[in-house]
Amino acid sequence: MPGGRRGLVAPQNTFLENIIRRSNSQPDSSFLLANAQIVDFPIVYCNEAFCKISGYNRAEVMQKSCRCGFMYGELTEKETVARVEYALEHQQHDQFEVLLYKKNKTPLWLLLQVAPIRNERDLVVLFLLTFRDITALKQPIDSEDTKGGKFP
């Protein structure tokens, strides 16, 4: 039976597929899915748009935490990082603007939305993190003050 499916399709796989399909249907949607039941919330899926916006390939992203610490930089606000941590640890929905950095260290303003996803038993099993690039709406980051590493 080459090429065919063997056995039953696991319910969690169809659950994941439904979330991915719905999230991919959103315009300009870049997102991550992370396991909410494992320490450090490892990324279990990232779409191609996230890879494009971040500059990382899928293999690199899939080895990371959805906390996105790999994208923090010198101007990423500590308060925003604390809000990400709080939303994940307390399994709460939240949305905020955050300054992250691409793989090549280019700053990027993103609107980040953290959404817990519950299963049929009302347990949070996944986190959906969606990212929208809002860099064009923000003041330029490359001012004379930041070029020299000096902060105002």
| Helix/strand structural class | alpha+beta
Provide the CATH topology.
Beta-Lactamase
| Residue windows where pLDDT falls under 50 for at least 5 positions | 5-11, 143-152
Portion in strands = 25-35%
If you compute it from the alpha carbons, what radius of gyration comes out, rounded to the nearest whole angstrom?
A: 17 Å
CATH architecture: 2-Layer Sandwich
What's the rounded overall pLDDT mean? 83
Compressed to H and E, one letter per element, the order equals HEEHHHEEEH
- Order of strands across the widest beta sheet? 2-1-5-4-3
The CATH homologous superfamily? PAS domain
CATH C-level label: Alpha Beta
Number of domains: 1
Q: Level of helix content?
A: 25-40%
Shape from CA axes? globular
Number of strands: 5
Report the biggest beta sheet as strand number plus sense, adding barrel if it closes.
5 strands, antiparallel
Number of helices: 5
Distance between the termini: 67 Å
Description of the molecule:
The protein has a five-stranded antiparallel beta sheet, sandwiched between helices. Mean pLDDT is 83; it is low at 5-11 and 143-152. The longest helix is centred in the first third of the chain and has 14 residues, at 11-24. It is an alpha+beta fold and 152 residues long. 27% of the residues lie in helices and 26% in strands. GO terms for molecular function: calmodulin binding; voltage-gated potassium channel activity. This is PAC domain-containing protein. It comes from Anopheles albimanus.
